[in-house]
Each structure stands twice: as structure tokens, then as C-alpha cells.
Design goal:
The chain starts with 14 loop residues before the first helix and ends in a 10-residue tail after the last helix. The chain is globular and about 85 Å long. The protein has 24 helices and 21 strands. By secondary structure, it is of the alpha+beta class.
């Protein structure tokens, strides 16, 4: 649906005007009478602005902070949010005028901004996003969301939302995608609040899960130096489209966003819906994109120069270089926004040759400057960190699965309570049986021993694991060809910044090389990482990793954890999906029943025996996983009603049967070298698969009870 025509109620303003909040603001209307004694007084709330030349999220966060007695100027918050440092595009939007202003793209660095200002952000436990677009579904969603928002208001929190406004209401057009503040929930459940039009009675129909927070005041948790370093790191990640800024169906940041923008500029029409409805005004869609990006660049350039003096002397030239890049970006875009320049958007939009020239002469150079700015900010960061550092209070791991055991160490060290079995269950490791059809092959035999070691299964549920536990967790992957070509250079290119920034924050991390290594520090030697292997069961003096890593697991900010019983249900759904090979594994990879079949096929391939230790490793890891599965669901049973707990305990007992049967396996080298011995193991694996299926059937019954007896989907 085209939403463009209403976009042009906003007039274009100069880049210089984009770098500050409007000097004159209208005081917002006083909301209806508050019910809770602790509720915030919004009578002095001020929120106005032009969402195409200012960042609505930064404006709303600034207004929220002021209501809570905390100050932060707009340019600083714009940079702390990372939103000034590169464009962000919402690809599903059919009208390109609204690409860059989607509020849901703007909150990735909320933790940094709040930590600097002195705010605490609690993600609201709103319902999951509806799967369809039916009016009745959304009516139910609003009815379920209203009490959650009301509860936050009664707590004395300021509710920040990154969108969800009713577009057409009595005040005229209100951009659905701008950030704002919900100030009241009416008795009938209607939610109203402040958007950029200077009113507090705008209707907000759908604040979304993961895009709405209850803000409260606290002491700043970040020092000025920590704030600057975090801000620069976020800027580098955003430009390069890494970490929380990775490309998705709904988001493209930095260089990825520029690629989308360039590709669109090199074709006709630039904005299809507007070309159909108002061809004489379609140039304004291009102008909106230029305005947004130029405003951010001008703000970033000024702020980087302002903050340069606070960093070590060796870092300052790099920040000046980054600022130069942003000034060139603003200068490159300026003619397209300047009447009479001969290069204004109205002069070339709709003309393919002119659009292609704009892409070549303006947008591609902007992309190059963005890449150079990221390189310069990375150099400033590396110059700011010490050449060596070591955290001395990192405990040992000592659990059977080095991934889950290592995560338990680094999470608890960071203050996020997480036991090994819970990590195994929430991540899905407790319930998985990994395999890959036809690979890897060594001397003609499929190396089944590598199957449980392959890292694709480890990271399938990192996002959910983080939400279940209350801490962002992300995997930083390397490039295998670059790794084998130059492991040391690959480390510097892909991992050095992540390691140094994490250690500077006081957070150990995990390095992956075959198994997982708990990184407690680094130095200037090769390879540089210091710590210990996650399987080590007693703390010792730090050792050096024996090879450069090919992947990292890094912790981010604390987030509001899911309700534990809700997390249980979602984890069980994923377990069932794994058992049925419906969990979204990579192509040719399997997680459950098909893995059992592939394993027995490999055992019965007596022409290609492979190595006996391969079968031993499969048995070992199946035992590790199901031992954790049994402990996980038994503990879960204590949190749920009897009609659910009974089946969870039954599932645990069946997983224990799997362990008992595994203990009878003869996986000696001699036995695995004979057809008879391999056939005995194949038949045992088939019996184990039956017990395993029965365990998952009990999980399915438990889920049905949790859903009121309705059908259960294996897809989480």
C-alpha cells in the first residue's frame, strides 16, 4: 500500500537545520487524569520535530529523559543511538520516501544511550506480533497490549515506542513509523501519546513486542570514555551491517542500505507507487532520502570532532579523518537538496540517464566515504585500547558441552544468572542430533564424528537464548577461505575489535576453534588470545589459544528476560521442531529423526568404515545432550501445573532410557571394524531412536495441555 502522499506534509529543510532540535516547541496537551500514584507528570512533555530531517527515536528519547529529570542534547543522543552514522532502510516499504525513517530500525543502541544519560530501559512483555492482517486479530492484540502498557505507566515508567501510531486520525496524518511516547491508556483500552506533531492524544494502535520500553531514571552506568568507545563500536557495526545491524528482510544498514538505495536509483521508476499517483512529485521521495542521510552525516561530523579530545592522542587523527568523511557525504548530497544547483532531485528523478549519473557521481562516492569512516573509527578504537589486557576473575568451565559450559561462564561473569542445563535446553542443544547428508567425507567414508561438532546447530537459537536469559548474545563468524589463507590477518580483520572492546567492557567471550575457548584477555603475541578451554574443570593460570579462532560468541547489553514459563513453552516447541527436522537447519543438515536414519545408513556402509572414534563421538554427544534434556525438563516440570508436569517428567524418564541404552554400546575399535559389530550398533541406535521419539511425544502432549488441548505446531 502506498503511503507516500501524506509524506509530503513535511517540508524539506537545510542540512544545518537538521542537526538540532527545533528551537520553538509547542507544549503538549495535558493527558487525562492519572490513576497510579507513581505515574509520571506529562504536563511539561515537549516533543516536536520533522521526522524526515531529524531522528524521531532520538527526539522521543530526549523528551522521555527530560520528563524523568535527565538531560541529553539531541545531537549527542542522535550519535549515541548510532542513527546519525549511516542510513538504515526498511526494504518492505513500497514508498521510498519512508525507507529511512522507520522507528523499528532505530533502537539497536538504546542500551548505550540510556547508560550514558542515566536511564533504565525495560522491554515491555507485549504479545507476539500477529501472524495475519485480519482486523479481529489486531483488535485482540490491542486488547492484550493495553494492560501491559497501563502496568508500565502505573510503575512510573515512561513508555517509549518505536512506532505503531494510527496514521489517519482527527489531527490529520500521523506517521505510523515514528518513535514517540505513550502517555495514557483510556478506560476502553485505547492507547494515546506523543508523536512529533506536538500532541499527547495521538492514538497508538500497536506498540510492538521488542519495540516498546518502560523507561525509568537511574544513575548513569557508563563513563564518558566507555560511552565514546561504545558509540564508535556501534557506528562501525552499523556501517558494516554486522551484529545487531545485520541485513534482514526488514532491515538494511550502512553499506547494505547504500546498495539498496543505489540499485533503486539505477532503475525506473524510482518510487513506483508515487510515479503512478503523482508523477510530478515523485522527486520528493528522493529528496527525503538525501535529507535524512545528510542530516545524520552533518551531526556525526560535528560530534566526532567534539569528542576527539576525550580519546587518547593516538586515536584523535582517526576521528578527524572520520569526521572529514562525513563532511564529504553532506557535501556530496547537498546539490540534490539545493534549488538552483542544477543537480536538485527534481532535475533528474524520472530520467534514467540522470538517475544513473546521480548513483555514479553521488551515491557510490557516499558509500565509499561511509566505508572509509568505518575504517577510521575502527582505527580510533584500536588506538584507544591497551596493547594487552587480562581479566583475572574468570572461572573455569568444566561442563561436557564446551559451548553451553563456556556460555555459562561468561554469562554469569557478566551478571546474568544461567546454569548449564538451562542453556543447553533454551539453546536447543539438549534436544538436537546433528547430521549432514553426504558430508564431510574422509577416505570415502562420511565422518559422522564431525556432525555434532559442526557449529551451525550451536547458533540456531542464540537470539531466543538471549531473550530467555536476559542478555543479548551474538555470534561473529569468520570467512573460511580468508581464515585458511591468512589466519592472523583474518583475526585482525574480523575479530580484533570485538575482542578488545569486550575485554575493555570487562566481559570475557568465547572463541571457537574446534571447541570453545573462554577468552579472558589478549596480548601482542600470536595467536593473541589468553584464557582457557571451556572444558577445563579447574581454574588455572591463563593459557594461550593454540590457533587463531574462526568464530566468536560475544555478549551484549542486558535486556528484559522473557517470562520463564513463556520461555519454557517456546523452548519446548523448538525441541519438537528439532526432533521432526523442522527447525530451519541449513540445507542438507538435519536435527532429529532424519539424523538417526543417516547415522544407521553410515553404520551399514561396510564398504566405507571410517574411524571407530567417529561413532564414539556421536554416542558421546547424544548422551551429553539427552542428559541435559532430562535435567532441563524435570526442572521445568516444577514450574508448571500437574497436567503439564506429568508429561514433562515422563519425557525426562524416556531421555534417561536413551542414556541407559547408550551405556550398553560397544564402540571399541575392534567392534567398529566388523560388519557384525556395526550392525549391532545400528540396531541399538534404532531402539534409542524409538525411546527418543516417545520422549518427544510426551513433550508434544505437555504442549497440548499448555495450549488448552489444542493442536501443537512443531514450528517454534
Amino acid at each position: 500500500m502506498c503511503r507516500t502522499r501524506t509524506a509530503h506534509v513535511f517540508a524539506a529543510v537545510s542540512v544545518l537545520a537538521c542537526t538540532c532540535v527545533c528551537a520553538s516547541r509547542a507544549r503538549l496537551d495535558t493527558p487525562t487524569t492519572r490513576q497510579g500514584a507513581d505515574r509520571v507528570d506529562y504536563s511539561a512533555l515537549e516533543l516536536t520535530g520533522n521526522g524526515h530531517t531529524q531522528d524521531s527515536f532520538s527526539l522521543a528519547l530526549q523528551a522521555a529523559a527530560r520528563v524523568l529529570g535527565r538531560e541529553g542534547d539531541y545531537p549527542a543522543i542522535y550519535c549515541l543511538s548510532s542513527n546519525a552514522f549511516s542510513p538504515a532502510i526498511f526494504p518492505p516499504e513500497d514508498c521510498v520516501a519512508w525507507w529511512h525513517v522507520e522507528g523499528s530500525l532505530a533502537h539497536m543502541a538504546l542500551g548505550t544511550a540510556c547508560g550514558a544519560i542515566g536511564l533504565k530501559a525495560r522491554e515491555l512483555p507485549l504479545p507476539s506480533r500477529p501472524a495475519d492482517h485480519e482486523k479481529e486479530t489486531w483488535a485482540r492484540y490491542r486488547a492484550d497490549a493495553a494492560p501491559v502498557v497501563r502496568d508500565a505507566l502505573d510503575r512510573g515508567e515512561v513508555v517509549l515506542t518505536s512506532g505503531g501510531w494510527r496514521a489517519v486520525q482527527e489531527h490529520g496524518f500521523v506517521p505510523w513509523c515514528y518513535a514517540g511516547i505513550i502517555t495514557e491508556v483510556m478506560p476502553d483500552g485505547e492507547m494515546v501519546g506523543a508523536c512529533l506533531n506536538g500532541r499527547t492524544d495521538n492514538v497508538c494502535d500497536y506498540p510492538m513486542r521488542g519495540e516498546a520500553w518502560g523507561l525509568s531514571a537511574c544513575e548513569p552506568s557508563l563513563s564518558r570514555e566507555q560511552t565514546d568507545l561504545r558509540m564508535l563500536h556501534n557506528a562501525v557495526l552499523r556501517i558494516r551491517g554486522e551484529g545487531p545491524y545485520a541485513r534482514t528482510e526488514y532491515a538494511a544498514y550502512g553499506l547494505d542500505a547504500m546498495d539498496v538505495w543505489i540499485a533503486k536509483m539505477e532503475q525506473l521508476p524510482f518510487c513506483g507507487p508515487c510515479f503512478e499517483s503523482a508523477p510530478d512529485r515523485v522527486w520528493t521521495c528522493a529528496l527525503d532520502n538525501s535529507n535524512t542521510t545528510a542530516a545524520g552525516a552533518a551531526t556525526a561530523a560535528h560530534y566526532l570532532r567534539e569528542r576527539a579530545a576525550s580519546l587518547p592522542e593516538a586515536a584523535r587523527p582517526h576521528l578527524e579523518q572520520a569526521a572529514d568523511c562525513y563532511e564529504r557525504i553532506a557535501e556530496l548530497l547537498r546539490p540534490s537538496m539545493t534549488e538552483g544547483s542544477g543537480q536538485h532531485c527534481r532535475a533528474f528523478i524520472g530520467n534514467l540517464e540522470g538517475q544513473q549519473a546521480h548513483a555514479a557521481d553521488v551515491l557510490r562516492p557516499v558509500r565509499q566515504e561511509l566505508a572509509a569512516a568505518a575504517d577510521a573509527m575502527e582505527a580510533a578504537l584500536l588506538a584507544s585500547y591497551p596493547k594487552s589486557a587480562l581479566l583475572h576473575d574468570v572461572p573455569a568451565g568444566g561442563h561436557c558441552n564446551s559451548y553451553a559450559g563456556g556460555l555459562a561462564v561468561i554469562l554469569n561473569h557478566a551478571g546474568t544468572q544461567a546454569d548449564y542445563d538451562t542453556i543447553m535446553g533454551d539453546s536447543g542443544q539438549a534436544f538436537i542430533l546433528q547430521s549432514e547428508r553426504g558430508r564431510p567425507v574422509i577416505e570415502g567414508a562420511v565422518d559422522v564424528g564431525w556432525w555434532p561438532m559442526a557449529s551451525w546447530g550451536l547458533s540456531m537459537r542464540l537470539d531466543f537464548l538471549g531473550h530467555a536469559l536476559g542478555r543479548r548474545i551474538r555470534k561473529v563468524n569468520g570467512t573460511i577461505d580468508a581464515y585458511y589463507a591468512d589466519a592472523a590477518g583474518h583475526y585482525r580483520d574480523r575479530f580484533e575489535l570485538e575482542v578488545k572492546s569486550s575485554i575493555a567492557e570487562g566481559r570475557p567471550l568465547l572463541a571457537e576453534h574446534d571447541t570453545f575457548f573462554i577468552v579472558a584477555g589478549y596480548d601482542a603475541q600470536e595467536p593473541p588470545l589468553l584464557g582457557d578451554w571451556a572444558l577445563r574443570d579447574a581454574r588455572r593460570e591463563p593459557v594461550r589459544i593454540h590457533e587463531h579462532p574462526w568464530g566468536l560468541v560475544v555478549l551484549g547489553d542486558e535486556i528484559t528476560p522473557l517470562d520463564r514459563r513463556q520461555a519454557d513453552i517456546e523452548a519446548l516447541r523448538h525441541a519438537l521442531a528439532l526432533a521432526r527436522d523442522r527447525a530451519g537447519a541449513p540445507p542438507r543438515c538435519f536435527t532429529g529423526r532424519k539424523s538417526y536414519r543417516l547415522w544407521t545408513e553410515a553404520l551399514r556402509d561396510t564398504e566405507h568404515l571410517g574411524q571407530a572414534r567417529w561413532q564414539s563421538n556421536m554416542c558421546l554427544h547424544l548422551g551429553i545432550n539427552r542428559r541435559a534434556a532430562s535435567a532441563y525438563v524435570r526442572k521445568m516440570a516444577t514450574r508448571h501445573p500437574e497436567e503439564i508436569a506429568t508429561h514433562l517428567n515422563a519425557a525426562a524418564a524416556l531421555f534417561e532410557q536413551v542414556l541407559e541404552q547408550l551405556s550398553t554400546a560397544d564402540i571399541s575399535t575392534e567392534t567398529m571394524g566388523t560388519q557384525e559389530g556395526r550392525e549391532r550398533l545400528a540396531k541399538l541406535v534404532e531402539r534409542i531412536a524409538v525411546a527418543d521419539r516417545r520422549g518427544f511425544a510426551e513433550i508434544e502432549t505437555a504442549l497440548a495441555a499448555a495450549d488448552g488441548g489444542g493442536p501443537v505446531s512443531a514450528q517454534p
